[in-house]
Amino acid sequence: AARSPDNLRCPIVVIMGHVDTGKTKLLDKIRKTNVQEGEAGGITQQIGATFFEKKTLEAQTAKLNQTEQFDIKIPGMLVIDTPGHESFSNLRSRGSSLCDVAILVVDLMHGLEQQTIESLNMLRQKKVPFVVALNKVDRCYAWKTCKDTPIRDALKEQEAGTISEFRNRALDAKVQLQEQGVNSNLYWEMGDDDWSNSDFIPLVPTSAITGEGVQDVLMLLCQMAQRKIWKHIMWCANLEATVLEVKAIDGLGMTVDVLVVNGYLREGDKAVFCTLDGPIITEIRGLLTPPPSREMRVKSDYLHHKEVKGALGVKVIGNGLEKVMAGTPVMVVGPNDEEEDIKAEVMSDLTNLQSKLSTDRVGVLVQASTLGALEALLQFLREETQPPIPVSAIGIGTIHKRDVTKISIMNEKGHPEYATILAFDVDIEREAREHAQEMGVRIMTAEIIYHLFDQFTRFMDELTT
Ligand code: GTP
Ligand code: MG
Ligand code: NA
C-alpha cells in the first residue's frame, strides 16, 4: 500500500528524564500495573516497551475529550521506557534515536536535573518533538487528590496556597528551561503562535500516583502525532527493526525482543542478526507479544502471531539467537536481496565499538547483558574512571569457562590486576566460577553498573597500598 495520511502507524513514544522522576510510575499508571516496585533498587536498567491500543488511548482521554473533541486516528502507541540513572546515557541515546515523539519527565519538586538536561539535548539534537511532564504535582502542599482527572479540573479544586506553590514551581521549571534555550509554557496558556512554533514546548503537570494530568499527556501526544509528525509516521511495508534485548525465557529458550518500527515481520522470514562472532541468518519460528498495556520486559502470557506490523515490540523465537546483540538492526533477506550486503549492514555498529578497545590488548574483560549496557560500561570506564580502566575484551551474556581462560592470560602478561571480569547483569556458569578460582581470575558482579566501578576501584586501592 502507498504511504498515506489516512494510514498512520503507531508513533513510538520515548519517556526520558533524570533518575526517579517517575517515568516508570507514569507508565504503570496508564497500564494499571506495578512494574516499578519490582525493579532492583527501584531503578530502571533496561529499555522497556508497552503497546497501547487505540481504545485504551480513547478510554484514558475520555474525560478531557469531552471538551477537546479530538478524533484519535493513530492505531495505538508504542511507549519506550528508559533508565534515568547517569550510567545509562547510551540507552537514553538509543531511546531518543528510536522514537518519533517524547515525554521528558521532570520532578516538579526538583526542577531540571543533570540527566533532564542531557535528555533534553538528545531530543533537540535529534529534532524529536516532546512534551514536558511536571510530575509529582501531588507533592504540592495540601494537594487535594482528584484521581485520574484532567489537570485543569484538578487545579480548580485546590486552595490558594497550593495553587501558589504550584505556580512558583512551574515558573521555576520554565525559567530553568529558558536557561537551556527552551521556550515553554503550561500548555493551556500557550497562544496560537506558540503552538505553530515547533520549538515551543508544552508543559503538563502530572501525578503518576494519583493520575491528575495523565489524560492531558496522552491527548497531547496523540495531537502531536497527528498534527506535527504525521508525514513521518505514515505506514509503509518495508521492514525497519532493531533488537531491544536478548534474553532466555523459561520454556522458550533464547529470545530476541525486536522493535519493529515499520513494515512487516513474519513467521518463516529469513532474518539477519548481528553477533560478536559475525552475522547470523535464522528462520523466524515464532513471534510473541505481551498483551496490550503490558510491559515487554516483564514475563507474561504471550500472544502468538503469524505476522506483526510496525510499530510494535515483539519477541522473536528462532535458532542460534544466543549471541545476538541488543541495539543492532534486524533485516530480512528478500527474494531479490544480496545476502552479503545485508550482513555487512547489520554488522556496522559493532565493528565501530570494537575499534575502541585497548589496542595493546592489556585490560579487563567486560561482560554485560546487552550491547547498550556494554556500551554504557565501556563509556563509563573510558570517561568517568581516573585513571581509565583499560578493557581488552568484551562479551555479551552468560560467562563461560572459555571467557575465564581468555582473560587469565593477563596473569601471564604480568598484569594480574586485569585478570578480572567485570560482569553486569549476567549469569556465571558453575564451571566458569571454579575455573576462575584455579586460574586466579576475579569475577566482579553487580546489578547496578556503578557498583562495579566501586568494587574495581577498591580492589585497585588494596593493590597499591
Ligand atoms: P528511573 O527509571 O530509575 O530513572 O526512575 P523513574 O523515573 O522511572 O521513576 P520511578 O517510576 O521509579 O519513581 C521513582 C519514585 O518516585 C518512586 O518511589 C515513585 O513511587 C515516586 N513517584 C513517581 N511518580 C510520582 C508522583 O507523581 N507523585 C509522587 N508522590 N511520587 C511519585
Ligand atoms: Mg524507571
Ligand atoms: Na526509579
TrEMBL record:
Q: Where is the signal peptide?
A: none
- State the Gene Ontology terms under molecular function: GTP binding; GTPase activity; metal ion binding; translation initiation factor activity
Major localization class = cytoplasm
What are the annotated GO cellular component locations?
A: mitochondrion
Keywords from the UniProt entry:
Cytoplasm, GTP-binding, Hydrolase, Initiation factor, Metal-binding, Nucleotide-binding, Protein biosynthesis
Q: Where does the Tr-type G domain lie?
A: 8-229
**Cytoplasm: present as a keyword of the record?**
yes
Report the sequence similarity comment from the record. Belongs to the TRAFAC class translation factor GTPase superfamily. Classic translation factor GTPase family. IF-2 subfamily.
Q: What is this protein called?
A: Eukaryotic translation initiation factor 5B
Q: Which organism is it from?
A: Nitzschia inconspicua
Q: Whole protein: which stretch is covered?
A: 408 to 872 of 1013
